Fold Alcohol dehydrogenase zinc-binding domain protein.
Amino acid sequence: MKPGHEIRLRRRPVGMPTPGDFELVETRVPAPAQGQLLVANGYMSVDPYMLSRMDEAMVHMAPFAVGAALDGAAVGRVLQSRSEGFREGDIVVHGLGWRDLALVDAGNARAVSGAFPVSAHLGVLGMPGFTAWTGLRLGGLRAQETVYVSSAAGAVGSAVGQWVKRSGGTVIGSAGSAAKATRLVEEFGFDHAFDYHGEDVGEALARRAPEGIDLYFDNVGGRHLEAAIDALRPHGRIIACGMIAHVERDLPGPANLPLIVGKRLSVRGFVISEHEDLRAEFLATAEPLLAEGTLRSAETVFRGLDRAPEALLCLLDKTSENFGKAVVEL
């Protein structure tokens, strides 16, 4: 048995989660059984979908259980292996974050390249990057289209913009501050970006895309979705992978849904875990671009397992200057 630590859900949040809903607990981690790995986690991911898992009404994933450790993507080094497919020292990605030591079934671990910073496997090469690439594929992105992406300074949004530019398209992003918008244009190649606190979303899109947009990549929902429906051209498309605005259950929905019919729009939601068959193709495309520096990665790093709840709650903070992928270094 080895001593470890994990973050548990102390109580079910009432409304928005708060730091008091979590607790850091000491644990004892047993040696791996046959077919298992003992992994020392180096980094863990915090992602918007985790906020939805606080809610018992979660639809497509099991909600977090009160009194149990949270879980999510992590990357670490194998300390002990009782699986023929892994050796001590291998770097692996798995789903048991929110703890410093993880006892992982080998079938739920994936060895990754050591040629990149390990945290990249949680960001631009991990679930967010894979989500961006897959979502644009499912959305039928074509060359020279105009795409709007909400939450563009996040891990998914910043990757979406880069893939759109590689297709020859025009990309518009919204972000939570003027500084983030500037970074999107100057560092990530966005054609336009705006602070949705400082500008009305609909007016911002009308100014930057007066002829309309072809595709909306929705990370937010709410007024961003409503503005995008207004801005979409006939036969435009919406691809939705997250609606973080609707963590607040009383948020009203878009008032212009009849335009989906009038404009003959296509709307598709997706869950990235259903598209594992595309991961190898994604990595074969993304890894060389990251190696040569033409695919950029940005991270906000929180240090220490005890800061994991803070990192997660920062995803809800509309005044936070977090940029790119939020990770916790353990």
In short: The chain has a mean pLDDT of 94. The chain has nine helices and 15 strands. The domain at 2-123+297-329 is CATH 3.90.180.10 (Quinone Oxidoreductase; Chain A, domain 1).
